[in-house]
Amino acid sequence: MPRAPRTLLLRLTIETAKRTRKCSRSKSHAVRPGERLLLVGERGPAAGKKGYCAACAAEMLAAARDEIDAIRSSVQPTPADAAPPTPE
Asked: Which residue in 65, 10, 81 sits closest to 43, CA to CA?
């Protein structure tokens, strides 16, 4: 059986707020009950989660997409890499 691909998004979840929360990126942004928020788990066994409002989450995810696209383009082979070696 083939292995499932590994993911870089290990500790990201989208949840609905049950109470009013403050955005971890901008304390002036409030997440009200019933609104969706991005939860990011911190590293480490005893680490908690940080919650982000929809506006900040969208900005953070767009920046992450740009970083991933840059990494992806740097690891994809170029046409010169794919060409077979020429015999000498």
From this structure: 10
Tokens representing residue 49 in the block:
């989660």
Task: Say if residues 52 and 38 touch (Cβ distance below 8 Å).
Answer: yes
The radius of gyration of the chain's CA atoms, rounded to the nearest angstrom, is: 20
Tally Cβ neighbours within 10 Å of residue 67.
10
Place 44 in a pLDDT band, splitting at 50, 70 and 90.
Answer: confident
Task: Assess contact for 40 and 50: CB atoms under 8 A.
Answer: yes
Q: Which of 73, 82, 19 is nearest to 51 (CA)?
A: 19
Other CB atoms within a 10 A radius of the CB of residue 5 amount to 5
Query: pLDDT at position 82, please?
Result: 60
Residue 48: CA count within 13 A, CB half-sphere: 3
Q: What is the pTM of this model?
A: 0.72
